[in-house]
Amino acid sequence: MFRKAVLAAGYVFTFIPISTFNATAASQEYPNRPLRIIVGFAASGGADIAARLVAQRLTEALGHNVIVENRPGAGGSIAAQHVANATPDGHTLLMIAAGSATIYPATRSLPYNIQRDFAPISLVAIGAYVLSTNPASGPKSVSELVAAAKGQPGKITYGTSGAAGTGHICGLLFEQLAGVKLLHVPYKGGSGAIVGAAGREIALSITAITSAQPLLDSGALRPLAVTTLNRSELLPAVPTLDESGLRGFDRATWWGLLGPASMSTQIVSRLNGALVAAFNRPDMKSALQKLGSEARTTSPKEFAELIRRDLVENSKMVQAAGLAAPAAK
Fold it and tell me: pLDDT by residue (tens digit) across 34-68?
C-alpha cells in the first residue's frame, strides 16, 4: 500500500545494491589511519627519494601521516611481495622502479606478478639516460657513432651501471634500432661507467643524467643524445635518440606508486588525484629537477599501459641478449 501511494504521488524508486553503499562508505572513511609506502631499496636511492616526496604530499592531501618504510633485499621483491599480500584498503602502498618492475621479471623467477597482483595508481617521476663520450676521441654525433659501429662490428665499447639494468637495455635497443653491434662493459654503478668513458677506458657510457651531470658540466664528457622520446628538462640542448634517427627510441628509469590488487576504484582515484595535483606544482617540479628527475604523472590506465609496454619490450631484448632466466624444469 505504501509503495502504491508513493508511486501515485509521482516518486520514483531507485534500488542501489548494498555493495555500492559499502564501497562508497569505505571511500568516504579513507584513510582512517596512517599510510605506509614500502620501498624495496635502501634509503637515499631514487625510489626512496620519490617515496618521501610522495609521502609528504599525500600527508598534506589526506590529513593522515604517510610513512616510508624501507624493506631492501632481493632486488625489491621482498617489499613487492609484502604489498602484494597486504589488505587492499589503500593503507599499504608500494613505490616501484622501472628496472625492478619491468626488467627483473625477465631475468629471474619472482613470487608475484607485477600486472596481476598490483593496482597501478600513477607514475610520479622519470629520469632520462644520456649517451656520452670523451670529447677528444669519441664521435661528435649519433650518426657518426652509427657509421663507426657499422664499420667495426662488436668493437665499440659502452659502459653501464650493470648487466640487465636500464642502461644495458638502452644499449640493446640502440643496437636493434641502429642495426649495429656494440660491446657492453658492465660496471658496479653508473659512476664507474662515466669515469671509464671520460678516461677513454671505454668509448661510450649510457647512464642516468644525474650520474653524468658533473662530468658533462665540466666538459670531460660530451653528450650525444638522451634516451627519452622528448628532450630532457635537465639537458634541453641535447637531442633525443629519436631525433637523431633512431625512431621510436624511448627509455628511462621511472618511479611510480602501486597498491595491492583489488583496491577500490574510489581509493585509487583519490590517491591518483592527490598525486597529479601535487606533482604538477612548480615547487615539486623544481625539487625533482634538483635531484636529477622530472615530475611525470599519469592516469592509472596510462601507468598500467607503460608497465605492460616495458615488460613486453624488455623481455624481448633480455631474451635476445641471452640474459633471461632459465626455463623451469
Answer: 999 999 999 988 999 999 999 999 999 999 999 99
Amino acid at the residue 123: L
Query: Which grid coordinates are listed for 200?
Result: 677513454
39-63 burial, b at 16+ Cβ within 10 Å, e below that, comes to: bbbeeebbbbbbbbbbbebbeebbe
Q: Name the amino acid, one letter, at 67.
A: I
For the stretch 201-218, what's the b/e string if a residue is b when 16 or more beta carbons lie within 10 angstroms of its beta carbon?
bbbbbbbbbbbbbebbee
Say how far residue 113 (Cα) sits from the centre of its chain: 16
What is the dihedral angle through the alpha carbons of 98, 100, 105, 111, rounded to the nearest 10 degrees?
-130
Segment holding 110, helix H or strand E? none
CB 30 within 8 A of CB 90: yes
The one-character DSSP state at 86 is: S
pTM of the full predicted structure?
A: 0.86
Q: What is the CA radius of gyration of the chain?
A: 23
Note the pLDDT tens digit of each residue in 286-325: 989 888 899 999 999 999 999 999 999 999 999 988 887 6
C-alpha cell at 145: 657513432
Residue 154 and residue 140: Cα distance in Å, rounded?
20
Which three cell numbers, joined as nine digits, stand for 193?
Answer: 661507467
In three-state secondary structure terms, 258 is: strand
Joined grid coordinates for residue 239: 637531442
* Three-state DSSP class for residue 81: helix
Same topology for domains 18-126+253-320 and 128-226, yes or no? Answer: yes
* Domains of the chain, residue spans: 18-126+253-320, 128-226
Burial label for 140, CB within 10 Å (0-12, 13-18, 19+), is exposed
Taking domain 18-126+253-320, whether its CATH number is 3.40.50.10320 is answered by: no
Going by DSSP bridges, is the β-strand pair 222-226/66-70 parallel, antiparallel, or unpaired?
A: unpaired
**Which residues does residue 69 pair with via DSSP β-bridges, in sequence order?**
38
Residue 215, H or E segment: helix 209-218
Domain covering 128-226 assigned CATH 3.10.20.540 in the classification: no
